[in-house]
Design a protein that fits this description.
Elements (H helix, E strand, L loop, with lengths): L1 E9 L4 E5 L10 E8 L7 E3 L9 E5 L8 E9 L5 E10 L6 E3 L5 E2 L1 E7 L4 E8 L5 E7 L2 E4 L3 E2 L4 E8 L10 E8 L3 E8 L4 E3 L3 E3 L4 E8 L2 E12 L4 E6 L12 E6 L8 E4 L2 E4 L7 E6 L17 E6 L11 E2 L2 E2 L5
Parallel strand pairs: 1-7, 10-21
Antiparallel strand pairs: 2-5, 3-4, 3-6, 6-7, 8-9, 8-11, 11-15, 12-13, 12-16, 14-15, 16-21, 17-20, 18-19, 22-23, 24-25, 26-27, 28-29
InterPro entries: Ig-like_dom, Ig-like_dom_sf, Ig-like_fold, Ig_sub, Immunoglobulin_dom
Protein name: Synaptogenesis protein syg-2-like
Length: 336
């Protein structure tokens, strides 16, 4: 008479493997409880039945190692009834390594990457190593799957190559996540018995002549890595506005050029008769000296009063050197 279970557990976690030690009849008693692993002839654990008070016996493993995977058999001998064997197949799940993301040149990427140019093609490769069972490797963008194709190689490496043929504005600051998932982690527990009466305390109870029960628990083991795309964007629109209402030959005319939607700020220049005029060409600063107080005038200045001067500078860009004050050609030094 035997009972079979399948347990799935994550590596480094802990697990308790149950054993049915309930005597088939009330007037029977347990004689011996032995635990075996795989095909080993010698038991790995022997329980003193005097320390068991009618409760299910458990084999505890903490923490679980990869080498703990295998088939465990709990043998229970009674004084009158036949021996009961509980067989547990323990499956150990090993998560894959954290995925790594590389560009087409093999450079590892993390965090904010780029900037890439709008309209360019972008090739990203995600790879992870290990994992038992072998993982699925999936590309996500903002919680939506965009590529679930992946492949394995003989080095236990899983890869998924993502190709964006043409970067567009909607890719700006898009979060691309590569996720490695151990699939098929459904743990199915099956109990079967051919005795006239059976009771499995840890899993199920049945009174039929032949019984089976199945309990299913699903767990998903996943690791992920993500990047955020930075892009250089082209202007959406270029607009030229004539600021001088009427154009008159020989007079100055003012035009304004505006661009919209570019990232970063663009360099604007003008073309006229095949010549380029860069808007960053600097004109000499235009300066004007004024009295700092509106109530003062040059006619009202008297000896002994304080006078304030303001220096107004019209310059694009602003001066990069300190402003110097001169009096009769000699530099003025600020008072301490």
């Amino acid at each position: 008479m035997s009972t079979t279970f399948v347990y799935t557990v994550l590596i480094n976690d802990k697990v308790q493997l149950p054993c049915d030690i309930q005597p088939p009849t009330m007037d029977d008693q347990i004689v011996l409880v032995l635990w075996y692993k795989d095909d080993e002839l010698a038991p790995i654990l022997t329980l003193d039945v005097r320390k068991i008070h009618g409760r299910p016996a458990h084999l505890s493993i903490d923490p679980v190692a990869a080498s703990d995977e295998g088939d465990y058999r709990c043998r229970v001998d009674f004084r009158k009834a036949r021996t009961i064997n509980t067989v547990i197949s323990l499956k150990v799940i090993i998560p894959p390594q954290v995925p790594k993301i590389t560009d087409q040149d093999g450079n590892y990427l993390t965090g904010l990457v780029g900037p890439y140019n709008e309209g360019d093609e972008l090739t990203l490769t995600c790879l992870t190593k290990g994992g038992k069972p072998r993982p699925s490797l999936i590309w996500w963008r903002d919680y939506a799957i965009i590529d679930d194709s992946f492949e394995f190689d003989d080095r236990d490496v899983t890869t998924n190559e993502l190709v964006i043929q043409r970067l567009s504005r909607h890719h700006l600051l898009a979060i691309l996540m590569c996720q490695a998932i151990n699939s098929n982690l459904t743990s199915t527990i099956t109990t079967s018995s051919s005795s006239s009466s059976s009771s499995t305390t840890a899993i199920s109870s049945s009174s039929s002549s032949s019984s089976s029960s199945t309990a299913t628990a699903t767990s998903t083991i996943q690791t992920s890595n993500s990047i955020t795309l930075d892009l250089n964007l082209k202007p959406i629109e270029i607009r030229i506005t004539q600021l001088t209402p009427i154009l008159v030959a020989g007079n100055d005319a003012l035009f304004e050029c505006n661009t919209f939607g570019s990232r970063p700020m663009p360099i604007i220049y003008w073309l006229f008769d095949g010549n380029r005029y860069d808007t960053r060409i600097h004109d000499p600063p235009q300066m004007e000296l004024k009295l700092g107080a509106p109530s003062l005038s040059l006619d009202s200045i008297q000896e002994g009063i304080d006078i304030y001067f303001d220096c107004h500078i019209d310059s694009n860009p602003l001066p990069t050197t300190p402003i110097t004050w001169l009096f009769n050609g000699e530099p003025l030094q600020p008072e301490p």
